[in-house]
Amino acid sequence: MGLRTPIYELHLQAGAKMVDFGGWDMPIHYGSQIEEHHLVRNSVGVCDVSHMTVIDLAGADSKRYLRYLLANDVEKLQSAGKALYSAMLDDTGGVLDDLIVYLTQDGYRIVVNCATREKDLAWMNDKIQAFDCALTERPDLAILAIQGPESLQVLKEVLAKDANEGPSRVAYIDQLKPFVGGFCGDWFLARTGYTGEKGIEAIVPADDAKQLWRDLASAGVRAIGLGARDTLRLEAGMNLYGSDMDETVTPLESNMEITLSIDEQRDFIGRGKLVEQIQTGVSRQLVGLVLNQRGVLRAHYPVYANDECVGEITSGAFSPTLQHSIALARIKTGADDLQVEIRGKRLAVLKVSPPFARNGKKVFKLADA
Amino acid sequence: MAEYPGELKYAESHEWARVEDDGTVTVGISDHAQDSLGDVVYVELPEIDADVSAKDEAGVVESVKAASDIYSPISGKIIAVNETLEDAPETVNDSPYDQGWFFRLQPTDLAELESMLDANAYQELCDSEEH
Question: Which residues pair with A199 in a beta bridge?
Answer without folding.
Answer: A147
